Amino acid sequence: MDHGEATTTTEPAGTSPTLGPPLVELKDVNKHFGDLHVLQDIDLTVRKGEVLVVIGPSGSGKSTLCRAINRLETIDSGEIRIDGQPLPEEGKALAKLRADVGMVFQAFNLFAHKTILENVTLGPIKVRRERTSAAKERALALLDRVGVKNQAGKMPAQLSGGQQQRVAIARALAMQPKVMLFDEPTSALDPEMINEVLDVMVALAKEGMTMIVVTHEMGFARKAANRVVFMSDGQIVEEATPEEFFTAPRSDRAKDFLSKILSH
Amino acid sequence: MGDFLSQFAELFANYDVLGAFWVNIQLTFWAAIFSLILGTVLALMRISPIASLQWAGTAYVNILRNTPLTIIMTFMFLAVWTQLQIRMSDDFATNFFRFAVIGLTVYHAAFVCEAIRSGVNTVPLGQAEAARAIGLPFLPAARLIILPQAFRGAIAPLGNTLIALLKNSTVAAAASVSTETSTLMREMIESNSDLIYAIFMTFAIGFVILVIPIGLLTTYLSNRLAVRR
Ligand SMILES: Nc1ncnc2c1ncn2[C@@H]1O[C@H](COP(=O)(O)OP(=O)(O)O)[C@@H](O)[C@H]1O
Ligand SMILES: [Mg+2]
């Protein structure tokens, strides 16, 4: 196997040391929203077990990138592969792929009319066709792991934002996904709740979950990420280890961006 | 006043007023159930990702909603019965009753569809995206996530549609359901023109008595069942 950029980067202490084969591959991906060229020739490979942080100014296309990876958005050209398989067009195969790609949204998006437990068991029962009792058991274990087991019978609106986001992580994990996408999972949270969510994510990273995380949380990137990509205006401008990126950004756009997020 | 009451007594003794209202309640009941089903299917078509289904749903709603109900009911009688000779029952009255239910259903389904769509608009887009993201295809996502929330958001407009349906069931006279209220009222006026105020009051109050609980119930339910976000 050739030594791609991902394997030559220095590993942050404590993360899984060996990265596996490519799990998410984007080749020459382009997307437009009308006149706006929101993804421009994106080439990106994420290996099994890798934690990739995507950072960049608002409107640079980070969410669109995440959404394209589980085909919540279609792309105009290029190719996206998950575990070697090209993204299916529609129908059963696409639903199956989405089940393999966990997604955590900025706004949590817990099913508002279902209890916390039902939120976590719904996918396993309705998509994976698991037995209800088995799904429940596993859901409770997951809720325990993210620290909200005692809220299992409540409705989402009764929980704090931090708790809701941890449930959303459990809901995604219940599908036993190959890769997890996080789109600014802490930016809708009150400051005192950010860490409880980041702690869960760091633990997940340490267990070897493949993760693509859009976030501006430098602490998380330093602790858990193997690699940072910096996006601006629909392009990947820079790729580096967290340490390199935050201490010595190469591009002017990254320097400018970092000076803005560091200045407060 | 006593005189007025005796007029009511006379009317109720000579005519089957309650029976006539009962016919309208039955028309409303069946048309409500069937239009809820058809309207839900139409709403699903309109929110589906398939362009031809969207188009068909939209076309249906726009055509039916903009056609006077009287014309639909007359069509049921003239075209379906007289021309096409379609029979739904050997019993004459049952046959026309069923035609009337169908006419009311196809018309009100358009309004039910729009009421449900307004309910769908109360469901944040993120709910559908989260459903898709865990691998639910369109129909299961609609059935498990979108519609249960949309119905709760649509209770008030659905209640309004039900009220309109109840009142519109009097148009069933046009489809020759001869036992319902508006037909009875005309009959009563023809032979008791001196009692015209009492007759009007009878039917006006009758409908108010039926409509008010629907309004109260839907307000109660839409508060009670509202999805907390
Ligand atoms: N559905 C859409 N239709 C049109 N423009 C969109 C849509 N979604 C996002 N955009 C635009 O695409 C650009 C990138 O958006 P996004 O991927 O959300 O950026 P980021 O997540 O980096 O803030 C923005 O300018 C945004 O306004
Ligand atoms: Mg975004």
From TrEMBL, chain A:
Main localization (coarse): membrane
Chain positions covered by the region annotation Disordered: 1-22
Keyword Transport attributed: yes
Entry-linked InterPro entries: AAA+_ATPase, ABC_ATPase_HisP-typ, ABC_transporter-like_ATP-bd, ABC_transporter-like_CS, MetN_ABC_transporter-like, P-loop_NTPase
Keywords, in A-Z order: Amino-acid transport, ATP-binding, Cell membrane, Membrane, Nucleotide-binding, Transport
Stored Gene3D superfamilies: P-loop containing nucleotide triphosphate hydrolases
UniProt-annotated location(s): Cell membrane
UniProt feature, compositional bias: Low complexity: 1-18
Annotated ranges, domain ABC transporter: 24-258
Membrane topology reported for the UniProt record: Peripheral membrane protein
Family: Belongs to the ABC transporter superfamily.
Protein name listed in UniProt: Arginine ABC transporter ATP-binding protein
Organism: Isoptericola cucumis
TrEMBL record, chain B:
CDD domains: TM_PBP2 (cd06261)
Keyword Disulfide bond: no
InterPro entries on file: AA_ABC_transptr_permease_3TM (IPR010065), ArtM/GltK/GlnP/TcyL/YhdX-like (IPR043429), MetI-like (IPR000515), MetI-like_sf (IPR035906)
Domain of life: Bacteria
Residue intervals passing through the bilayer: 20-45, 66-84, 96-116, 195-221
Keywords, ordered alphabetically: Amino-acid transport, Cell membrane, Membrane, Transmembrane, Transmembrane helix, Transport
Topology in membrane: Multi-pass membrane protein
Keyword Transmembrane appears in the UniProt entry: yes
Residue span(s) of domain ABC transmembrane type-1: 21-218
Subcellular location: Cell membrane
Sequence similarity: Belongs to the binding-protein-dependent transport system permease family. HisMQ subfamily.
Protein name as it appears in the record: ABC transporter permease
Source organism: Isoptericola cucumis
